Amino acid sequence: MDIPAPLRRIVYATYKRTPKRLRRLAIRVIIPRAPLGAGVLLFDSDGRLLLVRPSYYRRARWTLPGGWANRGEELRDTAVREAREELGADIEAGAPLATGRGPFGEVTVVFEGRWRSVPAVERLDAEIAEARYFECDALPPMLPPARDLIEEALAVSRRLRSVPGPAVEHDAP
Question: Model pTM greater than 0.85?
Answer without folding.
Answer: no
